[in-house]
Amino acid sequence: MVVLVTGANGQLGQSIQFIANQYPNVQFIYTDYQELDITNFESCLTVFAKYKPQFCINTAAYTAVDKAESESDKAHLINAVGPENLAKVCKEFNTILVHISTDFIFDGTSTSLSMTNGYKETDIPNPQSVYGQTKLDGELAVQKNWEKHFIIRTSWVYSQFANNFMKTMLRLASERDNLSVVNDQIGTPTNAVDLAEVLLKIITSYQTESHEVFGIYNFSNEGVCSWYDFAAAIFHQKGIEIDLKPIPTDSYPTPAKRPAYSVLDKTKIKKVFAIEIKDWKESLTVSLNHLN
Ligand SMILES: NC(=O)c1ccc[n+]([C@@H]2O[C@H](COP(=O)([O-])OP(=O)(O)OC[C@H]3O[C@@H](n4cnc5c(N)ncnc54)[C@H](OP(=O)(O)O)[C@@H]3O)[C@@H](O)[C@H]2O)c1
Hints:
By secondary structure, the protein is α/β, with parallel strands linked by helices. It is built from nine helices and twelve strands.
């Protein structure tokens, strides 16, 4: 089985590479934007013609949430046109597309919360930022152009690879003795390696051409926290002493508006693919241990 990975130098791409040797029956083709620029349809066609993959995991994205506010054309090109190109090429080669999306498609303000467990796949998106809108446009482009897709929405992704909140907190703690982190944005961290494992589980457990399993799925680690709680857990687990202050979002203005609440309900993915999901603190320990 040939699995083509786009954006393979990003943190999810590197996380897939990290676990790939657990899948000896899978031939992974890792591409970065130099070999496969997802915004270039011809580039997609050429690479698919060369490798003829059964699956494509699209980890390529424009992920600079604040910068996207002033680079909306670029964000749209990578997050919406790119997935559209991939969906069209996947259709041509009968390749199943596994595309990654985000909790930032939600506004995080719903009070109706059918949400004891968070946002369900069927809840109505209402992005509040350019990044969130372009990611939603990417989802819609995939759905419109190729039915054989899995769209996996995830949140607060971190890992021992590339740049992310966990590594930023550790860097800041090495530079200063106090830090303020928002405590009124609530969600769930996701260890990118856990996400990579689930993507591979979906791919390897896919056996029939059953259209019923295609569609949108939520995935994050288990549990709920604020960014402040996340930072506190990082410092606690690393034994770092720092004066950490909880602050409201108003005190830390950013160009992009973020959802106040973006916990994802994972009932569907757990049931359909029979997976158990680690608690976010347990998974954080694993990731921090890999930094040592
Ligand atoms: N990070 C999070 O907190 C988070 C949360 C929710 C959802 N997600 C989603 O999860 C997925 C993986 O995110 P991540 O954290 O692994 O992102 P990442 O570390 O930013 O990796 C994305 C990769 O895509 C590459 N790329 C950019 N433009 C490309 C193009 N035109 N063609 C091919 N590759 C291109 C980037 O290369 P350059 O670095 O050279 O530009 C980078 O290597 C994304 O879909 C993201 O939207 C992430």
